[in-house]
Amino acid sequence: MKKKIVFISIIIAIIAIASVFLYNTYATDPVSPNDSYSITLTGDTTVSVPRYSYKDIIYQIKNTNNGTVKYGVGYTSTTGNSVVKVFTDSTDPATGTIEANAYKYIKIRIENRTTTADTVSLSTILGYENGGDLPTPSGTTIVTLPVVEDNPIVDNSLVSNGIQYFYINTLPRTNIESIEYKKFSDIPDGATTTDISKNKDGSVLLWYTDGETSGNYKVYIASFSGKIVADTSMEQMFNGCSILTTLDLSSFDTSNVVNMSRMFRSCSLLEELDVSSFNTSSVTNMSYMFDGCSSLKKLDLSNFDNSKASSFNYFLSGCTSLEYLDVSNFSNKSIQGASPGYFEGLSNLKTLVLTNFKTDTLTSMRRMFYGCSSLTSLDLSSFNTSKVTDMASMFYGCSGLISLNLSNFETPVLTNATLTFNNCTSLTSIDLRKADFSSVSSKSDAFKNVPNTCEVIVKDCEQYSKFRSLWNTSAFKGTLKTVNNDTCS
Prior knowledge:
mainly beta, Immunoglobulin-like, 2 helices, disordered N terminus
């Protein structure tokens, strides 16, 4: 009996010794080191990670056992602050099974989002193929979390006692001189950071310093990569930042955003804004987006996709310094109805490119070009006005316009023409050869202050008669005639 027990003990000891040599594991060279650090790990599974940094490595496992086993990657952290995550495009998953003499290559990231350097030790955890959970040693964490390059930032609409703040209640928007976007490696020693990530995992941090003027601030926002992922809403993100003069948004990922309303409203000192990198394909609300950006001289909207934007009210209202604007790619196809004040108040605008600008779904063009006093011409040949009922104040105050070719304007349902051409004091001609005035009921001061030298062309004597019944020779003092110069009474 004793011999049998000794024999069994020897077998158990052999199995235990063999288990030590069950696998080989080591970490290889980093696959995507960050800008500041590079590491080489061969046969070593201990990694030093500086403050506010990360390291990407391939963790290799080889099963030297004769059978299939279950595996996982575990880690311990000296400070307890670091987190190890697996990439979704990793060749092999962080947990699973591995056959005899097979290899696994697991792409992982070691993240340290704190002010203190850390040391992380990686290990392979093994278990029976058909067993239960992996036997994780005390103090060891199994890698399961996926790498998320940058989590979204939180909504930025903090208001307290009537004061608008920028993320935190010590940063009044009216006192922010500059906002810069950085990488974690740029965070200075001693900076007091605030976590503004949506998931509160430290992936996006904010800090600030005193500005050039007493009482003002310089704001910095950082992530590991420098990229900033916006959440579904950027509503009012910079609204009221009235002393900002520049803003670089090239690091923003806006692919998740559905609401950009009032995003830059009242950024009255911004002179240039490059939003050419914005992905706006999912945005449904752009109302008042640039409203009140009165110093803005350059705005590139050539890549803007507004196909899903159903709300576009006063989009650029009050951008009184803009001289050039190209919105030729705007489809407007989700605007079902009114979109008042589209270009209202662009008083310095000299060129407006509307080549493929679509208006098929619009029912209102109220105040569309209101106050665009520096425009001398407009190409509206792409416009479809067949559903428009309201053109009130559409060209009000366009005092620089010399002629208006509206020969494509069909107006079968137009009811409101109040103030439409009011104060267009330089007009010499208006071509309305397809217009139908049958439904017009509101017509006050439509041609007030239009020169008596202006010539209006209508389709035929029927429309001539309807026009004169709405605007007699006192209301419109210019010349009225038909396309074919018919004699009408």
